[in-house]
Amino acid sequence: MSLQSDKAIGVIGVGMLGTGIIERFIELDTKVNVYGRDKAKLTYLQDKGAKIFGDARTVAEQSDLIITCVTNFESLKEILFHNDGVMKCSNNKLIIADCTTVNSDQSLYCSNLVRERNGFTFLSNPVMGGPNDARKGDLISLVSGNEDSFKEIRHVLEKISKHVFYVGQSNGVSNSIKLALNLNIAIITLALSEGLILAKHSGIDPNLYLQILNLTKLKTGISEKKGQMMIRNDYSPSFFLKNMLKDIDLMMDASQNLRLFLPMTSLSQQLFRAANNNEDRKNKDYSVIYQFMEELNSK
Fold it and tell me: From the CB of residue 4, how many other CB atoms can be counted at a distance below 10 Å?
């Protein structure tokens, strides 16, 4: 198989990240086959130039490479193994690069089942970055699995990534790195929230506090990109609160399997879970945790 053939790249999943990846390929005049459940998104992407299919199997029939980017492990198993799933296609050679945030055991489970089909390869390929990073080709790809397959698709990953890391032959290793990195997102966002709250309740303009913070070595990408939005109560999502909680749950499952004590992550889980109990917050940006923390301090 050669990815230089006339077949397009397939993308399964049209959430925020999947849509950003598809838009990047379209911008680069790369043929892209798409399957997803959001009809409005599919219409939008079709108008942009994507070819839309009715199920995952037919996308796989017409593609040499499938990038999967779905919500969770259950969704991933469904699009891979259920009726009209990827594994039901008659394609003789196929590489699946999975960007879904799952834990290492879940990724390994999928890899083992895919490996049973001769000619098929499953790469664990979580990414760091959001939909805007995908559109600009600024993702960071973390890849583990078969090295030959990785080498074959590296040039495709470089279209959507500013850095591509191959971290080993064992599927799931890259997923462990992804969860360890996302742990920082949760804890840094809580620290930023508490700093803003302490400053505000001390009579300090939170805008001034944020300006000073972002001039110090304590600044982060989160303080620079999300800080002003948090102060304005603008929680337009780049990553849903409910998905942040899902990832923290995966982190805690991993820590328990490894018999690790992660007290900050455990407390983060409690806070994000409590915030997620409000239906209005679930589909807002994860930085809405600041609003929740403000409410706790206003009672």
Answer: 9
Q: Where are the domains of the chain?
A: 8-170, 175-296
Q: Which of 51, 57, 63 is nearest to 1 (CA)?
A: 63
Query: What span, in angstroms and rounded, lies between the C-alpha atoms of 67 and 73?
Result: 15
User: 41-59: b or e for each residue (b if 16 or more CB lie within 10 Å)?
Assistant: bbeebeeeebebbebbbbb
In this predicted model, what pLDDT tens digit does every residue of 164-219 receive, in sequence order? 999 999 999 999 999 999 999 999 999 999 999 999 999 999 999 999 999 999 99
Task: Check if CATH label 3.40.50.720 holds for domain 8-170.
Answer: yes
Name the 3-class secondary structure at 143: strand
Say if residue 83 is exposed, middle or buried (CB neighbours under 10 Å; 0-12, 13-18, 19+): exposed
**Which of 72, 70, 71, 66 is closest to 86 using CA atoms?**
66
Q: What is the CATH number of domain 175-296?
A: 1.10.1040.10
